[in-house]
Write a structure and sequence with these properties.
Length: 215
């Protein structure tokens, strides 16, 4: 019967389906990636397979700030650095935001990675983020990493200037209001609706330098 052969082998279909589940990858992009792996030299998909296996085997979250770190290196390099200002914590949504801000060289405190932002429409609430861990760091200074016990005196809200980021910042400000900490946020030199990871270093440096008190 005509048309019975007009489909991909099962393994190819399965790969396309898995690739299309990745953020920003649609069906057509997944097909292009799958065919690239099919036609590439054998070491290319083999290396990708090893990298994916190593990702789950060797990468973990820092027990202090939730940033990504190598297993066996906990706390992470930033939290373990006693030259950092342990009284200031900059809260970001994702590890990529931390990296973007760290590359400015303008910030010498610690970080906290929420691993997302509040989004009721997507079913993401406070319990899905690492907010409780952040509050623990404030309430119990000995859990803030490093050798000594230094209380957190300032929390900088470095959320993306989006609707969800602003909502998350307001929620955090409410949770922090009853605690003895100064609450600031990055200056609005960043365009509304933008993402920190795509901002240039100068804009991020200005946002850090000109951070403003909330409330």
């Amino acid at each position: 019967m005509a048309g019975n052969g007009a489909s991909y082998p099962e393994a190819v279909d399965r790969l396309i389906a898995r690739l299309s589940e990745l953020p920003g990858i649609g069906r057509r992009s997944a097909e292009r990636l799958a065919f690239h792996l099919l036609t590439a030299e054998p070491e290319v998909p083999d290396a990708l397979s090893v990298a994916l296996t190593d990702l789950r085997r060797t990468v973990a979250h820092c027990s202090v700030c939730m940033h990504l770190t190598d297993r066996g290196k906990d706390p992470c390099a930033i939290c373990s650095d006693n030259r950092r200002d342990r009284s200031t914590v900059l809260v970001v949504e994702q590890p990529r935001d931390l990296i973007a801000l760290e590359q400015t060289g303008m910030y010498a405190g610690l970080y906290h990675v929420l691993m997302g932002r509040l989004s009721p429409l997507d079913g993401i609430g406070p319990g899905d983020l690492t907010i409780a861990r952040l509050l623990d760091r404030i309430d119990a200074p000995d859990s803030n990493g490093g050798g000594g016990v230094v209380a957190i005196s300032e929390v900088v809200l470095g959320l993306n200037p989006t609707l969800e980021g602003d909502g998350t910042a307001l929620y955090l400000a409410e949770q922090l209001a009853s605690r003895d900490v100064k609450i600031t946020r990055l200056a609005r030199g960043l365009p509304s609706g933008s993402e920190l990871e795509f901002a240039n270093k100068a804009a991020l440096a200005d946002a850090l330098h000109g951070r403003q008190t909330m409330g």
